[in-house]
Amino acid sequence: PDVTFTDPMTSLSGVDSYRKNVDMLAGRTLMGKVLFEGAGINLHSVTGGEIIVTDDNSNTVRVDDIVTRWTLRLTAKVLPWSPEAVFSGVSVYNIAVGGKEGLSIVGQTDYWDSINIQPDTSSTNVKQQYKTVPKNIAVSDFLAQLAPTGFLAPTAAPEMPYLLLRRGDGYELRKYPGFVGVETPYMRRDYGFGSLGAFSKGMNPLAPSMCKVYNDDNVDDGDGKEKMMMWPLKFAFPGEGTDAPPAPPAAIEKAGSGQWASVNIMSQPERIVAIRAFEDAAMGPVVRNCDRELRAMLKRDGLEAEDGSDQFVVFTQYDAVHSMGKRRSEVWIDLKDGGHPF
User: Fold this and answer.
1) How far apart are alpha carbons 95 and 92 in whole angstroms?
2) Of 251, 287, 248, 247, nearest in space to 268 by CA
3) Largest CA distance in the chain
């Protein structure tokens, strides 16, 4: 049988058409070489494909759909500022029994996390959660990623790596490796930056700076529980497991004693985090409103936050203090194990 392919912007039929579309995105055709570069895909999971025998005494066999979750990136080099477009989503493969190999893929339907997720549906039920939308919505989503971003403030340090699992509607899901860092209580963020900067001199700390504030105080006052600032120092490389690596010897020697009595070493295992970005100054009303918006989005898309995470707000900053340009700040919420499809 012939094969069909459908995604939010494209509908194709036939193996040759499918192959040409893939080659274009990968920059292997003339048009693809002009338009795109750096295409790459991360495959997060493959599920389904169970063999099902009908119960009508005919012993007919069929194969359930196969579902993959992925993230695709490509750079539009045809534009002078070379923007990167990112798509994450699912592919549903329809399997037919028969043919030379015994089984064949007769259809592939792709859905994007940013536009195809239906509200108030289960994040583990793909066929219920993902539905088609008009193509103009997909085109708008793609074009919005190609717009110039303006002058960005430089990051204060190299950024800790992560795997992007989802580019959703208003948020991202990321998997961070286990890492070890140093933390200190602070009254004002510039004081926290100064203290951790002096402590970690020569240790090559990483971005972002992570601040944790409790919901019984304001971000910039000294009431209620202590506000904490943390800087990552080292992360686990692929193949090193999910736990945090050991802290640098210099950090172990200094932390918790003398002038560094308030600085502690903190270890964080691998985790999946929901992220919502904001550009305004990280004042109390701003970060708490961003946190509320993110929690509403998680509920809408069938995702579950870690128990107890509503008692505080975690926000991060990437750029140096007093730097010029468009700032990058985010609110983070850890997701519960089993509260997401990854």
Assistant:
1) 10
2) 247
3) 79
Q: What average pLDDT does the chain have?
A: 91
Decide which of 310 and 59 is more confident.
Answer: 310
Q: Which of 57, 63, 132 is nearest to 94 (CA)?
A: 63
The amino acid sitting at 33 is: K
pTM over 0.70: yes
C-alpha span between 176 and 163 (Å, rounded): 7
Tell me the per-residue pLDDT of 259-284, one tens digit each, with 9 for 90 and over: 999 999 999 999 999 999 998 888 88
Q: Any idea which residue has 């089993």 for tokens?
A: 338
Q: What is the mean pLDDT of residues 47-61?
A: 81
- Would the pLDDT of 224 be above 70? no
Measure Cα distances from 63 to 46, 49, 60, 68, 303 in Å: 14, 6, 10, 15, 29
H/E stretch holding 66: strand 66-76
Listing from the earlier edge strand, what are the strands of the sheet with 66-76? 11-13, 4-6, 103-112, 84-97, 66-76, 36-48
Distance CA 81, CA 323 (A): 22
Q: What value does the mean pLDDT take over residues 226-238? A: 95
**In contact, 259 and 184? CB cutoff 8 Å:** no
332: exposed, middle or buried (Cβ count in 10 Å: 0-12, 13-18, 19+): buried
Cα-based torsion angle of the residue sequence 237, 243, 248, 254 in order, rounded to the nearest 10 degrees = 160
Q: Which helix (H) or strand (E) covers residue 190, if one does?
A: helix 189-199
Decide: helix, strand or coil at residue 274: strand
